[in-house]
Amino acid sequence: MKITILFFSLFFSFCSFANNIIVNGTRFIYPSNEKEITVQMTNSADRPAIAQAWLDNGDPNESPDTIKTPFQITPPISRIEAKGGQVLRIKLMDKQAIPTDRESLWWLNILDIPSLSKKEGKDQNVLQLAIRSRFKFIYRPVGLGNPETAIKQLSFEAKGNQLTIDNKSPFYVTVTKIALDDKTPLNTKTVMVAPFSAETLTVKKALKPGQLVTVNTFNDYGADVKSSIKIK
């Protein structure tokens, strides 16, 4: 009797790989004036793969069968031939409940299920790994301005080792590094601050008002952007 074990591994990183499937981005922006956007997947392996794609609302453990979003992905499941590609089309179906004064965030999931070779199919026990990657999927209404100016609308307020980041912009801002000497990070994790919201984190060294810190953030293309901000 052949036993096939399907193991789902969650892969959280800024890498654009879902096992052997390469995705053409680390984050995806859906401008509200576009009818749809496309996501290109390429299978770098020497064997076919099955790819399942879906959006979630922020809970990585929720089943795709129960998730409801205002978007439609075509095709939701596809076979990608060895060294071949597949284009995903993501279309907004209902924008009534989406805010128009700020960005909204979902997560794009790509599940890569590699196929079994004929030789593997004859084995008694087969361990098949299905790797899932999650990518930020941001809906951006028109008229919000230039997202590159969002960093200028951040304010940092320190109380000892507690640092509050206040985002007064309509854009999501991901802060990857905060440093005094531009070398040693004071933060222990990356923090994403939602539009018109604030996040408080614990830093390694107490900060004082008036100090200048170097802040690294990601832009729309996943590139690192460095800025200087004075602590309040």
Which class do the helix and strand fractions yield?
A: mainly beta
- Mean pLDDT equals 88
Number of strands: 17
Order of helices and strands: EEEEEEEEEEHEEEEEEE
Quote the distance from N terminus to C terminus. Answer: 67 Å
Low-confidence stretches: 1-18
The total of helices stands at 1
What top-tier CATH class of the largest domain fits best? Mainly Beta
- CATH homology superfamily of the largest domain: Immunoglobulins
Which assembly state applies to the chains in this document? single chain
- The best one-word shape is globular
Fraction of residues in β-strands: over 45%
Main sheet, how many strands, which sense, barrel? 6 strands, mixed
CATH topology of the largest domain: Immunoglobulin-like
Radius of gyration, in angstroms, nearest whole number: 21 Å
CATH architecture of the largest domain: Sandwich
The number of distinct structural domains comes to 2
